[in-house]
Design brief:
The protein has 86 residues and is α+β, with helices and mostly antiparallel strands. The protein has one domain: 2-Layer Sandwich (Alpha-Beta Plaits), CATH 3.30.70. It has two helices and three strands, in the order βαββα. Strands 1-3-2 form a three-stranded antiparallel β-sheet, covered by helices on one side. It is globular. The model has no long low-confidence stretch (mean pLDDT 81).
Length: 86
């Protein structure tokens, strides 16, 4: 297993786990149970997405494409610019 990404939040981590799973990549989230210790533990670097070595490049590519995606102007609500409607 190889650590390929450090999500900023548990919400981002869960969403990326789901996305990778939908693409046939089995991923594991390390540090999920440490999030409750923020304040006593360092705030950054607690979470990590791990995948099998042979799937690491594809998983990094998918996460990179996700991070590079832009909000379409027609999908932005007027009250919250920069937010996607789901």
């Amino acid at each position: 297993m190889r650590r390929i990404y450090e999500p900023e939040t548990l919400l981002e981590a869960e969403m990326l786990l789901s996305m990778l799973g939908n693409e046939g990549i089995q991923a594991h989230l390390s540090g999920r149970h440490l999030v409750g210790g923020v304040g006593e533990l360092p705030a950054l670097g607690l979470l990590g997405l791990l995948v099998a070595d042979e799937q690491a490049e594809r998983a990094r590519s998918l996460i990179g494409a996700y991070n590079a995606a832009l909000v379409l102007p027609a999908d932005e609500p007027d009250s919250y610019p920069g937010t996607l409607l789901c």
